[in-house]
Amino acid sequence: MYNDENNLYHGNGDSYPRDDYQPRQDLVHPAAQPQAEQTAGSSETGSSQTSGGHSGPAPKKKPSLAMKITAMCLACAVIGGACGFGGAVLADNLTGGTVINQSKRETTTVEVQQVDGKTLMTPAEVYASTVNSVVSINVSSVTTNVFGQTTQASSGSGFIITQDGYIATNYHVVEDATSIEVTLYNGDTYQAKLVGGDSDYDLAVLKIDAEGLSPVTLGDSTKINVGDTVMAIGNPLGELTFSQSVGTVSSANRAINVDGTPFNMIQVDASINPGNSGGPLMNLYGEVIGIVSAKYSSYADTTVEGLGFAIPISDVQALLVDIMENGQITNKPYLAITGGTMTQQMAAQFQIDLTEGVFVYSVEEGGAGDRAGLRLGDVITQIEDTKITSMSDLTAVKKQYKAGDTVTVTYYRQGQSYTTELTFDEQPVEEQQEQVIENSYSSGGQYGNLPDIFGDIFG
What we know:
The protein is an alpha+beta fold. The protein folds into three domains: 1-43 and 64-100, no CATH class; 117-326, Thrombin, subunit H, CATH 2.40.10; 333-458, Pdz3 Domain (Roll), CATH 2.30.42.10. Helix content is 22%, strand content 30%. It has eleven helices and 24 strands. It is globular. 29% of the residues are buried.
């Protein structure tokens, strides 16, 4: 910039060059004039005297108080503006970005993608593409206590699996419900009917009277890896409807036991809260890879952080179809035995060299265990390649099979291990699970006299 001070315009607190500026000679001190001009002036006028006889420049007027205040205010404004601009430039240089006017920021429209298992999406695109397949569930139940009947309300989530209104959720969401209300993302509300459910698998299917709905796309939960990004969409706390939380897979195959029921779960660090139960767990392709279970996100009523679970969809997809068609899971596998977890006390009492496994208390005549050759006193230690250390392990591994499947069972008898082929029976409807007896020897239960009848087995 051209910096000749005579070419700067000073006025109203601003300072910038003026091409047409000509300095007033009567305001310029003679010392500031070029020597040639001073000489020429002397020859033309003879002197630089005023009419009053005084030589030298004309006296300057002192600025008034108002002018000083005005100039000060304008100077502050200029300095402030310069500082603001400099700060913005500094921020831009530090971040490598562009200074944005926040007041003019607009929401970006997220494009709805087709869920085809091939199109990778952002979490925002997953939400926009799948939220119409998620539902909010509100449940009422009537209980009877000493004061009479009481109505209780609870909430959960679910997702649409068919265009004509079948909805998947957790069994514990709708257990003992007398009224079930389902709300879609567009606000439409329906009264739902419970088609069926199963507490062992924590699965339930609802039906609403609707057509043309948007069902989810089911993925393959066996292909997930620790570190994969996942999203849970649901109804946390029963009022934060259609919320999405994002996290990663912490464990792809986590065995947990809740209230005596074993589950194979996907562990995630996405926020999971009461009301999320039954909602979908999505991958970045918009596919459902799990059914969120808030019930299993805490232990002993302890609040936890960054710990959530979902039932792998590949483990239960066929069971959901079974419930839709038959109102229940009809092909649940059944060993037809009574068993319990092996303990150190039992090992010492019966002189068994094992402290883990499932002790066989009894075998149903003609049942799957009987046909496979199992008998009282055997200890089941393995099914196929899965080690069995407790009754919970046995119950969990059974969920991988259905009635009619044949597996290799490894068991311990009189100091030796044997294998046998066992074909599962179908579990009777009235049986909720294999009969279980836990620690009956140490507690003096109904099998407390078994040591007497084991003489023939152990000698």
